[in-house]
Amino acid sequence: MTPKYIGKMSLGCRIQYLDKNLRNAWKFYMIGYINKMIHHKNLFSEETKTLLYFDNLKNLSKGEVVTKLYNSFTSSEYRGLLSDIIDNKYYTWDKFYKDEIKEAHNTLEFPLVLKYIKFLEKCESRVHQIGSLGSINSISTINTDFEKYAKSQIGEGFIELKQVSRKISDFIDRVDEHYENALIYEKETLEEDFQMLANRYLFPYKDLASPTIFIEYPTEFAKYKRLYKNWLLMLVEKRKRILKWDPSKIPPVYKALVNYAESLLRPNEIEFFNQDVTQYYNYPKHIFPSLVCFKLFDQFAKHQAPQVLINYLYRKFQNSKNYNYRIEHSPRAFLDWYHDAYPENELVSVHSSLSKVRSVDREVSFAIVKSLIEQLYGNKTKAD
């Protein structure tokens, strides 16, 4: 099936283009989405045809416009054209998937539709991932800035963190783009793909993993590499959550990224960080049961967290079944300490129950920061 303009968008009319053995089912689905978007926006009407002036589309036939928009999925040359022209936030990729399945169940008089429904059900994960990647053009908008992440730990004097952050972020974007194209082209990624991408976009910058400025500062060098490692692992963890990967089935190109991150620290550096670090830190033991519990709370509180977040953290710790994370003090005792420790923060109340202040965003942020804190401070226990 070649990309084409389809005037009648009902599945009953389109089904004639679907191969009886479903060999072109994915392409059939994508071309259906392009045409649905065109009809939704009424792209060829007198009122909206001025949109076609972008990229000289006004000189193309309807079929050629569909072809070029189709290529916006499968070619970096046209990446973003689809959303620029049609503004697909008003009719999302995920919504088309739901509508297509619903219509298929209402079009069962065509024998081939049953096969198509089974195909769509098998594609649900792929559709979700492409939608999540494409709806924000690049998932890189969720990347934590490495400069901000590392500055508080090693300062700015040793290395140009802004430049390092830009180069690493660009590499992660390349990995995401490679994975997105694999989903669209119905291909599998390989661990070797990471090596190919790294050789082109990461390894030429030898100072990223091993800045020469640190040669005479082995302790600071080890801290830098640990930050670099944990930051890469954090980015993979975010993708696990947003793209809903099975934890045991991370795409090979990202699995190779994890392996690279894990290899950054030498055995003697790992041993240095695995020492009992508690003795090196003072923390309010009368409030927090462990260093990691305090560090986790402090990571939020020191950025002038709003009242609802402090309330959430207090109740989260209070309800924890893990001793290392369970605060047992009354709200008054906790707040007396909190207002003394963070005088620049607004006065807060923590009387709302956990169910009232819990949200998906807070739960996800808590889990990500907790994972990083445990890696940074050597605590491998699990909290509920």
Short description, anyone?
The chain is an all-alpha fold and 384 residues long. Helix content is 57%, strand content 0%. The chain has helices spanning 11-14, 25-41, 62-74, 81-86, 93-105, 111-122, 124-135, 146-154, 161-184, 191-201, 218-242, 252-262, 267-273, 291-301, 307-318, 331-341, 354-357, 360-377.
Structure explained in plain terms:
- The protein folds into three domains: 11-119, no CATH class; 139-274, no CATH class; 279-377.
- It contains 18 helices and no strands.
- With 384 residues, the protein is mostly helical.
- Helix 5 packs antiparallel against helix 6 (111-122).
| Number of DSSP strand runs | 0
Order of helices and strands: HHHHHHHHHHHHHHHHHH
Which overall shape is indicated by the principal axes computed on the Cα atoms? elongated
Give the % helix.
55-70%
Portion of residues in beta strands equals under 5%
Q: Mean pLDDT across all residues, rounded?
A: 79
Class from secondary-structure proportions: mainly alpha
Distance between the termini: 51 Å
Uncertain spans, ≥5 residues at pLDDT below 50? 276-280, 379-384
- Regarding quaternary structure, how should these chains be classified? single chain
- Compute the number of helices: 18
Please state the CA-atom Rg, rounded to the nearest Å.
26 Å
> Largest beta sheet, briefly?
none
Tally of individual domains: 3
